[in-house]
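Follow-up to my post from last week.
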Amino acid sequence: MELPSKLVEAAVDQIASLPGIGRRTALRLALHLLRRDPERVEAFARSLTAMREGVRGCSRCHNLCEGGLCAICEDPARDVNQVCVVEDVRDLLAIESLRTYRGTYHVLGGVISPMDGVGPADLYVQDLVDRMRSAPTDSEVIFALPTTMEGETTAFYLYRKLGDLALRITAISRGVAVGDDLQHADEATLAQSLKTRVPYHG
Amino acid sequence: MELPSKLVEAAVDQIASLPGIGRRTALRLALHLLRRDPERVEAFARSLTAMREGVRGCSRCHNLCEGGLCAICEDPARDVNQVCVVEDVRDLLAIESLRTYRGTYHVLGGVISPMDGVGPADLYVQDLVDRMRSAPTDSEVIFALPTTMEGETTAFYLYRKLGDLALRITAISRGVAVGDDLQHADEATLAQSLKTRVPYHG
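User reply:
Got it. Predicted complex:
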């Protein structure tokens, strides 16, 4: 579809470069922005550049922050010797929204995926190893990685890397979701759920 | 979900203010932008403000252009006495992509929708009437409006407004889509298709 203005064309190209946004949606959004006051579009654009310029990874856990350590790492009430390893910031936010976890995090920035050309060197893996090397021996590393081939590969890789350190390494449990019928759970989940059954305390 | 940075929060709020984009998607897009080079985010933002500042409606038909008349209105090969009335620029682009229509357009900028508080005064309706008043008597106005209640209301309103001018007023035909089975067409479409049947020329 040829657009009647080079400026619209450029904006649509930019919007469509975002993951999951096709050209049709991009055009719809561009036309929407054209109906807004210029000041609002200016504010929109400024918020994106301000974010990109002002936000950096926490120097310890790679959570988002605006310089130095993130709010979680800086919180003296959080247990620095309990480190939950997650793929990205959205997983950290999901766990944080539970308001039950009082440890800290380590954001890998992805998972190992040879298919996508992502190796351990592309992630904050060595960083985690270095960090745990100086941790007390009763420290715990919790793998909270996706249940995909890539997630499992990453967990196994980290396990091997961390293996010689005297740490407690755990992983979040897999199983039938709370509120789900057994008959609707997929086979792999049900099998895992049975295999990793836990003592029942009534 | 509380975000770990006010700057990310602000950007997510802005992205989520776009129609059809929820906060979850907005966060995904914000995190994607954070992984890009600052120069690319700068270029992204600049393309939006440049579009908003540089693009205006064609002074005759309200198609997008960068000042004065749009490329279609300026094209001497297009028939200015054939005016296709559309709801918005995307409909114009859809017709243009056929490469068969050689007339011009009039973009209303919406359809009459009392439910959404959109009346004729919010659209380029009077503009169309003024424009057609000075057109030759053999001019044609083609309604290419949506097949919704609002589209039909708008067409009827325009018909009444243009009625005293000696114009040919037509509307694009409604019916079973090309390539569709009759059994899969909805009842209203099939009924319309039968009612507005046309001579068959073999």
